[in-house]
Sequence to fold (525 residues):
Amino acid sequence: MTSYEEALTLIGNLSQIILEEKNLFHSLHEALGLMAGNMGLKRSMLTIYNRKTGKIYIKEAVGYSYREKGKGIYSPGEGITGRVVERGEAIIVEDIIDDSRFLNRTGVSEEEKESLSFVCVPIKSGENVIGTLSAQMPKADVEELKKVEHLMSIAGTIIFHAVLRTQAEEEEKHELEDENRRLQEALGERTMQGSSDMVGNSKVMQRLMQLLSKVAATDATVLIEGESGVGKSLVAWELHRNSLRVEGPFIKLNCAALPESIIESELFGHERGAFTGALQQRKGRFELAGGGTIFLDEIGEISLATQAKLLRVLQEGEFERVGGVETLVTDARVIAATNKNLEEQVKLGNFREDLFYRLNIIPVMVPPLRDRKNDIVVLADHFIDKANRMNQKEVKRISTPAIDMLMSYHWPGNIRELEHAIERAVILTDDDTIHGYHLPPSLQIPSQSPRHFEEEGTLQQRLEAIEYEMIVDALKATHGNASKAAETLGLTNRMMGLRLNKYGVDYRRFRHPVKNEEESPVHAH
Fold:
């Protein structure tokens, strides 16, 4: 624990960070890091209560991975964080392993929990609670924890207005997204072929779109299969927004992202007092999806016990909340997705056979990117436009060598990997063109050709990479006329021929039927 003088210094530094830092994201992250370092905290996090969604999200955290942060979603009254938001009062937990209110959404190991205490304080002004500050720290007695609580409460007061601005931005973003969705629907953007989200002209994508257009208007259960990153969530959304249920809700649940202990409550809801921490009745996803669609992503991750209860909903449309006796009815359409081979999982005894056949009424296979390479350039252009908007850039094209790299890569991460690669390249380029050396190292295939050298290579490698790209671009612009390409580059025909030999470039592959085009006299010997 910090001394009195150290505490004063900490408070002063926090105030300075909030006052001087113009970027809210940076200021809140720096404030958390400063607190963790000065107060001996193992982990710390800042949550924000979004009144539009009714959920509490982790906005900033120190000591948590990106995946762990994504799991930290709470409702008011749920767990320690939810209770602090609901009641506006701090909670101190001397030993988290003995406190059932600690939900452990972020996945602290049982071994580590034995040595941790937990403090959570509200970020508030009067009765207006907008979020929480919480910390896990080495186990301490109550008196020591009260000192930590006092300092954290002061910190919460200091950062209140910064968090308030962040809360307003999050809620405004949510409102804009809802309004955009309503406008799109009002404009009638409901046809599959006119969708701005599904991108691709390859034959496999055309077949997929045809299948979706037939299935969308029905209420049949759909099982979407495909590797991670192929866009299964997007397919589910397209099925919903082109269905007769488009005015109803589209409720998503990632079955792999939630602990087994709470997934049943998430699916079916719970009654007040059903378990420790259930302070009020809560509707589940099936209830919320009434009249619309429920999308169960990573369905292969749920336990056999939950599978049995899910089967009943699919067969009879009935369920009970956890701890309840009233039988509820849902008319939600079910769309499920998996990256596992469920037939194989059935044989292994990990997935119920009857549930598999009930889900597999309409199977939809989303092809991996390596099977639709004709779509890579179209997708890349789409992601360039998206990245330009996000990063205030004006990238207009991809160089030919960079396209070659995109086309020759096997894309194990599929569309998600392509999007990240393009976003990275857009950020790194200093002009309006993505070059090969802007692409990630995983695309830098070993070769004698400099087209594959990384941006971080030697000076000679980088110069050769640029020279190679300039030669290819010149040949492309002159339709394979090496003499004209040499002229535009300020080279003699002999110099051009030597460079074509050096880089293994065949100028003839850039030729197109062009009237009155002179035969190129440059030959590579």
In short: Residues 377 and 403 are 7 Å apart (CA to CA). Residues 160-186 form the longest helix (27 residues). The domain at 371-510 is CATH 1.10.8.60 (Helicase, Ruva Protein; domain 3). Confidence is low (pLDDT under 50) at residues 185-196, 446-455, 513-525.
